[in-house]
Every structure is written in structure tokens, then in C-alpha cells.
Amino acid sequence: MIEVSNIEKSFDGTPVLKGISCVFETGKCNLLLGGSGTGKSVLLQCIVGLMKPDIGSITFDGTIYTNSKVDIRQEIRRKIGMLFQGSALFDSMTVAQNVEFPLQMLTPEMTPEERRDRVEFCLKRVGLENAGNKMPAEISGGMKKRVGIARAIAPQCTYLFCDEPNSGLDPATSIKIDQLIHEITHEYDITTVIVTHDMNSVIEIGEHIIFLHQGKKLWDGTKEEILNATVPELRDFIFSSSLVRAAKRIDDETEGGIAAFAEEGDAGAGI
Amino acid sequence: MVTRTESFRVLWNRTMEEAMLIGVDSIVIVSIVSAFIGAVTCVQIAYNLTNPLIPQSTIGFMVREMTILELAPTITSIVLAGKVGSSIAGGLGTMRITEQVSALEVMGINSTSYLVLPRIIAALLMFPLLVILAMMLSMVGGFLAGTLTGVMTSQDYIEGIRTDFIPYNILFALIKAVVFAFLVSGISAFKGYYTTGGALEVGAASTGAVTNSIIAILLADFALAALLL
């Protein structure tokens, strides 16, 4: 479980995060939802330690991360896996070497055979068992995301962070990536935090959603609750999509049909 | 960068990788440049030495002094500033803007010790070796140019390069090589590592790395000559 307490962050005097507090629960897909420029990615970077918040604290399973000693921060960082928006694969390494890299660096006690087995397992888990020898430049955007996920889970991470995992992908591939993240979260009981502004992801895998607007947390809840939320900024955001407007109309007409729609999303995630 | 490094094995492997890129991959260009510098130096000195009272062996002597003291370390380092400096800045800059540096940090890896320190150590090791190669090839280039064009005999040239040899000059050239290596790798790594923006900024970082490195080499060249000679 990750607890974020009263985080504030400014750039050149312009406040970007304004006292955000929230909890990301273990074994759930926690979504940070909001429009562009609302501070989602900045909050994510503060949580993983790529940025230092001005005020506030972040706790990983009871261990304070912000302002703690380097050793403690390193220990927590080694439990973190992250999928970047552009995948951030090392372009001088093959797919298999990318997945093996954190194992080489973080688990020197593993033998080369054990590492190779783990790489094969992770690549198979994301459906890329035949792409190990390819270079990142030779694979598609969706495959890069899957390699990024394989690299993140290779050292058996406890916390998985995904920065807009669907950006630049077609809807079908986006759903596959969402489902993969959902499955991995439940399979390994990890704490997953996903930054997104994609309502399809919300309906597909949003087990705990936190809505940010202009640097403030305005709402949190589940995907079943989000369509009936009364916060005007959230309603403006979610109903800007015609797909969600249609879903809401079905919900109203069928008295709870959206719940079935959401359950269908859950069922799809298990495929 | 040096207080929280990765394990010695990782640092060694990374340094050897970078040494291959900085050193071995630069052998051809350094060889070509230094051989021609030696050849041109020999021919131009011969052109200017018209006094019959000055022995022909002086040409070999002057080629040796000029290449060891100045041309081999300085010109080689300027060439390497262009080749290695732009490579370091471009590589690190690209890694920065594509979030590869952030990926390392998130994994708990100290990105400066993993990416920057091996490059600096590799440059410190490789620059002196390349300068030694450049010294030798410059004198060989001078020998070939002098003898093949007929401006002097091989005996005169060899006599000249063996006259009044001062071993300290070699040490001075190697000190210069080490200082220039640190300047080129340090400036280029700084420019690349702190790149922000996109592809345009990576190009600007590479250009800045080369120009700043060359200026730093020339300033350091003067300072070292004033201090150590």
C-alpha cells in the first residue's frame, strides 16, 4: 500500500500539485485520472522519486520514502517497476537484454541460467517469447509496452507504475495492455498505479480511481461509482467522451446496465 | 557520481564497453590525422629551412619536438572532441529525452555512476594511448613524406629524431592527454546528461559539447604549457 500525504509541488512559483492526499491499495489497479496538465505525471514522478515534492510525505507499506536516507530509498526503489509513456527501452540492447538488465543490476546472486529462465518466463507472460532477439527499433509500439511491462516485473516488483500505458496505441492494443496490467496486478498481488486520461481504461480496469483537476484531488472511487459522481469537473471530463455518454444513457435506460458493462470489462480482463 | 557507485564488476564492464567505443573505434581517424600532420609538418619545415648551414637532420628534430609537445596531444584531442564528445553528448542526451535515464533511476541505479563515470574513466585511459599512437604515426608520416619526396635522406631524419631527446616531453604530452580527456568527457557528459526537450536540443547539446570542449582544450593547453614547461 502506498500512502500519499499532503503533497505539494511548484515549478518556478506555479503550483502544480496542491496538497494531494490519497491511498493506493495493494492488489488493485489504482488509476490517476485527469486531463492534460492536471499534475498526474508530476504526482507519479514524486511518488517514484524522480521529483522531490516541496511539502508532504509518501509512505510505501509503512516506510517513509520522502526525505529518508539513501539506503532506504534505494531499497524501496528496487521494489518498483515502471512502465514509461515512451516505454524507455534501452535502444542499444535487445528485447531479452532489456528484460535481463534489472536482474543483472539488482540481483547479482542469480546465476546466468536463472536469469535466462526468468527472462523467458517474463517474455512468455507478456506474449513475446519469440521477440527476445529483436532490437527495440524493430518492434511495434504495443510490443514495446509489453517489453516495458516484462522489464518492470522481471525483478518481482511490489509496486508497478504505468505512465499513460495506452498513449499512441490503437484501441484493440490498448485493451490488451490494460488487461495485461490488470492480470499481472492480481496475479502477483502488487500495488499498481496507472496515470491515464483514457475512459476506456477506467471502464476496463479502474478498481480505484483518483480524479485530479488543476493540481487537486477532487474525487476518488470505483468505476461503478464514477458515472454517478456529482463533482462537476469530473462529469465534464468523463462525459466529454461520446462513448461514455452512450454508456451512461444505457445505464439510465436499463437501470444499472453500466454495472453489467463494467463487469463485462472485468470478464474481458480475465481473457 | 563517485560516492554511490555500482559494483566494481559493473563499473569495469561498462568502462571496457566505453573504452572500445572511445579508444578502439577512434584508431583509424587518429591514425589518418596524425600521419598526415607529421607528413605536412616535415614538408613545410623542409620548405622553410633553406639555409645550407642548417643540417637536414634539423627537420627530423623539429618534427619530433612539434608532434610530441603540441600536435599529437592537442590535435588528437581536438579530433576526439569532435568524434567522442559529440557521441557522448548525443548518446546521453537521447537517453535523457527518451526517459532511459529515468528508467535507470527508478530501478535504483545511480545513473551518473552507471552512465557518466565509465565514460570519463574510459576517456582517461584511452586518450593517452591514442596520443602515443599519434606521436609514433606522426613521426612515421614525417619520415615517409621526407624520404619519398626527396627533401631529405632517411639517415638524416632518423638522426634528427634521435637528437637531444628529452624524456620529460613525453610525460608532458601524456599529462596534457589526461587533462584533455577529462575536459572532453566531462564537458560532453554534462551537456548530454542535462539535456532537456527533444531531438533539437540533443543536436544543440552535441554541438555545444564539441565547441566547449575545443575551447577548453586550447585554454588548458596554454595553461599547462605555462605551468609545466
From TrEMBL, chain A:
Residue span, ABC transporter domain? 2-239
Keyword list, A-Z = ATP-binding, Nucleotide-binding, Transport
Q: Return any one Pfam family short name.
A: ABC_tran
Q: Which GO terms describe its molecular function?
A: ATP binding; ATP hydrolysis activity
Q: Which InterPro entries match?
A: AAA+_ATPase, ABC_transporter-like_ATP-bd, ABC_transporter-like_CS, P-loop_NTPase
Q: What transmembrane ranges does the database entry give?
A: none
Under SUPFAM superfamilies, the record lists: P-loop containing nucleoside triphosphate hydrolases (SSF52540)
Q: What name goes with this protein?
A: ABC transporter ATP-binding protein
